[in-house]
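ARCHIVE CARD
SHELF: 3
SLOT: left
DATA:
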Amino acid sequence: MAGKEVILSEEGLIKIVDEIEQPGGGGGGDGDGGGACTTKLHNGAFSDFKSKIRQLKENEIASSSLSVKLECAEVPQRLRSDVKDAEVYYEPQVMSFGPYHHGKPHLQDGETLKLKLAATYFLENHGSEDEMYEKISRNIEVLRICYNPTSTEKYTNEELSVMLLMDGCALLQYILCVCLGDHAEYGIRYQDLSRIHRDALLLENQLPYQLLQDLMPQYFSDARKVIFLEFFGMTENSFLKELFFGIEEEGSFLRKMKSYCCRFLFRLLPLSIIEIINLNPNQKLESIENSMPCRHILDLYRQNFLGVERSCPLTHSKSTATVKRGLGSDGDVKNQVMASFRNVKELMAAGIRFEPSPTRYLRDISFSSSGITACLRLPPITIDSSTETLFLNLIAYEMSSNVPHDFISYLRFLDSLIDNADDVKELQSAGILQNNLDTHEQVADFFNTVSSNLESNFHAYKDVRVKIRKHMKNYYNSRPKIWMTQCLDTYFDSPWTIIAWIGAALALFFTAVQTYFAAFRR
């Protein structure tokens, strides 16, 4: 190929290969038998190379096409194989939504409950089954490609439309049921509420969000921000319960009367009144439907769990110029940002105290330093028996889609802080972590294993990691700072030691004054 300019691109490479394969196209000049021989010798290997490139391109096209279609994906096989008893964490226990687990024998009672919820939804919202079915059937091809084809190919368009109609209406009615607290009317026991709530947030149990929007009546669609936040448990108080029931006891006559009338009243409330009554000044409802389109309920939960993007630091952050100067001073950017740092106990020994962030958004992590002491603010979080299932499904969602691995990055960040039970105890004392499990060791083991083999987002919490690393470097390179920090930890670590120190200082001062006047009395 002497005299040719090789362009390192797929199209250019294939074009050159095609020219070489053409008769007489491989020589450098007329009658150049050596060039023809060389072309023949390399023609087979080069043809294989070309076929591999074309195969790679076809695979990439098929993979990208599949990722676009699967808005409601399955748990990646890699995660299933890594998790012991994976069906406990990834498969529904009471109700199935969508085709992945539809028709399984242990979910038959859930099918009966779904039918009852859907029937109530039709009745209370004055919606015609025919109208709702028509909406779904018109878009059934779009809805079908949201799922893995192997799970939907056994259903006709009509069967899939009926399935999605009943599942969507049942899910929306259940959400209202939870928010209004009238689950007893459907025979749902308290112990089943958490199990159904768990099922609604499983990755393989999701319904396309567009389907839910098509099935929502106007009042539900207008107030969906408030309703979904309450269903997710992300509001401090139950607004709908207080609005309709007040403080009446369960089973009272007044409560039953309000239960009968509440949904009719709810449909008449404009969105402005609902939001004005319910909104907490610290609540950021705009994050529930940000610029990134919502795919399903689990995606909606993740968006609200993470909060606003960290492209602009939320609070307590210095300028990005400071961060960039810190990066450049220590060499390689990636090594500095991603290098693991000390656990909670060792960070506290370096003068870093821990405080809860002003919001519960997982992205609201910030770090500020005053030279000798510093403060790392983390969002408060509760760990209980349902946390592992929820976290594993959020991990599976990020691994099976093209969204940034921001939740995985948060888990990796906490994993770098928590090594053992002592670290968990310190975070609980600071009001950051609420442990509802049996022991602190369980929480430490959970964070050390749940994301151990996963890759995080390089840019997530980059500014915080760089600032912590810079503070630690400055601390260990300065003996006066070490002595000052040790002094503060020893004598000023609590209000009682401060009071005792001040009392001792005053006593010493007054003793010196008394001695002075006794020695120099005129």
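SLOT: right
DATA:
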Amino acid sequence: MGRSKKVTQEGAEINQHNEQRSLCLHAFSDMSRVPAATFVYLLKGCYIYGSHKATTRFKILHQQVKMALHNAPQPGPFTYVVQCMYVIPLLGQTYAEGFSHMLTSSLKHLKSVDSVKKDFLEAKQLAARLVLDILASVLPHENRILVKLLEAFEIELRDIAHALYGSQLDDEDLVKAKEHLKQYVKYFTESESYVAAVTLITRFSIQCCDESFLIKLIDSNQFETAEACATFMGKEMICLLIEKYLNMKLLKSANKLVKEHDLTEEFPDVSYLYKESLVKKLAEKGCWDIAEVRAKKETKLMEYLVYLAMEAGYMEKVDELCQRYSLEGYVGTLVPEKVFCGSDYLDLKKLDVEEIVWVDEINGLLNATCYIEACKVIGMDCEWRPNFEKNSKPNKVSIIQIASDKIAFIFDLIKLYEDEPKVLDSCFRRIMCSSTILKLGYDIQCDLHQLSQSYGELECFQSYEMLLDMQKLFKEVTGGLSGLSKEILGAGLNKARRNSNWEQRPLSQNQKEYAALDAVVLVHIFREHIGRQPQFGVSEGCKVAWKSHIVSRVNSALRPLRF
């Protein structure tokens, strides 16, 4: 009996919810008799009772509002939204800004509809009154909503004057209206609400700012607002802003302003400096092919790219570019020893690495597996050919590197998978599922994801034991694996070759050394780190620091290992 009563209550609640939803949908389909206040509270009801996540609910409701404003709200959609804006603050801060944004942005697509143009013109006067009420704090709307209203209703100084002094206006009324608004510019400036202040200044042509105000905007990192203000103030202030950008190394922003305002004559070098900075960023990321595409139209830029390659110690790239663009003469003017300082980076010699072993056939695979199984700690990494096309799948993982502190094995996954997939799977399962080998990686979950995507038929990359992600162990250290190496071992890694073609065969010696170093250095970082811990192996507190980061994932559905 009690259960029956409970079910009846639940059913009643569901029916009530469905009735509320039906009422909302009915109201949205015919807005001719729905007052603004009712509509606002229906919006809140729809949002509260929605079953999706907040962002999804908001997007769905936004679409409903757009359709509702087409369904004859009286006296018209623009006037109706103004009426809603007076009601929305009653919902409280939780809903006010989101719903206000939803309504004002829904008006954008209605401006081109002929049947509502009359309503738009009439609503401008009401919207001007609404703006004044917000400015006077009669209505508690956020400054962002104030700015949106000014834009959505295209409010002009005459509209403000009309709201203040009536329809019979003369020039003196416009001057008074501007003075009236100036007090709010001062208030917004003092409260550091710079977007609202500059919006009033530029929209209503209020002459009340100078160079010190522009500098204040720049110092506050309000760059977009500073650009709007400088454009309003004229060429002299735009030039000042460009100079500030150049001093701050904001070359992209400086170049944009130079182009927009046709100031190439005043700033002839900005375009090249921006292109140079772009090429340098690409080179630093190892995106040499993209950097080459950006540079090849200008000889000076290509020479700079050659210089960057030499600076990075990427000599095969230097030779490649010089051959392709006939820049041997330029290279002859550079002194490699002065351009490239190898001592800045760690290398295999400094770590006393004895051997790099390339593995691409079954005997090498079996021998390498036996060696690795005897190790207590190994470093792991993998490489694949970069794909710079947007929305395209990454290429197949080409190689995987596994190293002790002295020997690095580089496995040619593409060839081993083609020739001996079963043996490859068996050997790597022995390594990955071993509970006696601590396996170190950097952002290793990303590598495992790429491996499982590339070789989904293999079981060896689906399970693992004793995996330690060094990125998670050293969360506070920035700069990737190179930054971690610099922090712990005193020298970073040269990452110039990370985006080279890892599918080419044979790999160059430099590529092999780069790949090997990424795996070997993990072991050295780990050992240096635990060596710094007092009484390591005795104090349990020292163990916890890194052992708590070890992860395992065992897929029980996998067949047992057979050796």
